Amino acid sequence: MSQSTAPMISSHERAGSAFNGYLMLAVLAAVTVVVLYLVINAAPPSGAEKYEKLLFVGTLLLGSLTVLIGSIGFFMIQPNQAAVITLFGEYRGTVRTQGLHWVWPWMMKKKVSVRAHNIHSEKVKINDLRGNPIEIACNVVWRVNDTAQAVFDVDDYKEFVNIQIEAGLRTVGARHPYDDMSDEDETTLRGSADIVNAELREELNERLIVAGITVDEAGLTHLAYAAEIAGAMLRRQQADAVIAARKKVVIGAVGMVEDALEKLSGDGIVELDDERRAAMVSNLMIVLCGDREAQPVVNAGTLYQ
């Protein structure tokens, strides 16, 4: 018999209400003055009736308890800070207005920072799209957007952010190769930073929306092959660089030979048959593409000798 799991009910932030803290501070100050006056001037004489003494003690205790319990309800909201108010476990709203506030002492207050937080993740070892082990790390700027979700829908929203950043980094890193080893124009971790960073930010926003967290910025800060293949990949990169340089030299040499032959033929300096033209092309390509300087040879005979 299958059992169905009830979906989690998502919380949503709503505005909470609180009394003006400065006004309540004045009220408590007035009550304190009254209590002090009773202690100093209103104490019953020694010969007073018993009920008068009990009335005095009761009034004094009531005033003292009012001052003591009333002082518990004060709380201060700093800029870019919020306070989540609950009453016997029931969410009663979030206060975001900065300044001094007061709520009933039996109402709980949990302060939540809505400032921007900056996290630099640890280096994690993953496999890219082609299975190559790489080391990767990122920097993430995030903030609390919905305080009710951050407090009630996850156990510890800061720890939740740290775990989801690592999970999102692994997911995005595994979608693309570290570098492009083919002639295809594809997205790579090393060569497509803007695309990868935007994809990482979108991935983290999707993961953290359940906790009321918004990611403002995300970007890779470390990217390298793992130590066990770093040497082999370095040699491959060096080989790619040599091939690219050779290719550029050959293309340039072909253009120079073509221009030289056209100039010789166009100006009528020398007439070459196909065989001698091929020999000249071969000599020019050797001179232009060789790693060492060419050694000239003086020909004292004819062109065909």
From TrEMBL:
Positions of transmembrane segments: 20-42, 54-77
Membrane topology: Single-pass membrane protein
Subcellular localization, as worded in the UniProt entry: Membrane
Keywords in alphabetical order: Membrane, Transmembrane, Transmembrane helix
Band domain residues: 72-237
Domain of life: Bacteria
Pfam families assigned to the protein according to its UniProt record, in alphabetical order: Band_7 (PF01145)
GO cellular component terms attached to this protein's record: membrane
Gene3D superfamilies xref list: Band 7 domain (3.30.479.30)
PANTHER family: BAND 7 DOMAIN-CONTAINING PROTEIN, MEMBRANE PROTEIN-RELATED
Name of the protein in question: SPFH domain-containing protein
